[in-house]
Amino acid sequence: MGRWQSGRPSPVEVRYSATAWQRVTPVLPLTVLNGALLITSWTGPPPPDFVTAVLTIWIGLLLLSVLLPSCFGVTLTPSAAVVRNVRRRTIPWADIQAIQLQSTLGTKSLVLHEANGHRTELRAPTSGFLSWDRHFNEKLHTIETWWQTHRGPDWTPITPPPAWWNTPPTPDPNPFAPPK
Question: What is the spatial distance between Cα 91 and Cα 143, in angstroms, rounded to a whole number?
């Protein structure tokens, strides 16, 4: 087992998935609406069949939307990054050319750039306005450290794709190179 720069032994495997707050936040409005519908059906006349059907469907969706995101994320192993999105992908460290921080509408996420030009956005770790992850920067640093440590001696940076004629030139000849 190797050692981190801090002197602690490195773990065999690291797994990141959405935090509990990130899984619950998107379904809070659905929960409130579901509760209001349930209270309305209890206080009024016997509920018609469609109210019962709607409640059943919404409770099912609520459970699904809380449980499903816990399956998404990334697992770091010594040989590869195992990305668990809708489908599971194993990306060897030597194939990853860069790890980029991406911000979309205020939500920060990580993108893995592969040598074949494929880019994979990780569903976890992420951090945003209502789904804040206070350990996001630590997770970003850990993923970058695993990549730099395990990518192997035969890893070589690839040249970036050519820029459009109207874009400014890149200051660094290789933007996919590891941070200095």
Answer: 13
Can you give the pLDDT of all 180 residues of the chain as single tens digits? Answer: 444 455 554 568 888 877 777 767 766 777 777 677 767 766 766 556 666 777 777 777 777 766 666 678 888 898 889 998 778 889 998 888 888 888 888 888 888 888 888 888 888 887 888 777 888 889 889 988 888 888 877 777 766 555 566 656 556 656 566 666
What pTM was estimated for this model as a whole?
Answer: 0.64
**What are the φ and ψ backbone dihedral angles of 109, each rounded to 5 degrees?**
-145, 175
Strand partners, 91: 81
What is the crossing angle of helices 49-67 and 28-43, to 10°? 150
**Pairing assessment for the beta strands 73-76 and 80-84 based on DSSP bridges:** antiparallel
**E strand intervals along the chain:** 14-17, 73-76, 80-84, 88-92, 96-104, 107-114, 119-121
* Phi/psi of residue 83, nearest 5 degrees: -95, 125
Rounded Cα distance between 16 and 72, Å, is 9
List of residues 6+ apart from 171 with CB closer than 8 A:
none
Closest CA to 67 of 20, 33, 34, 129: 20
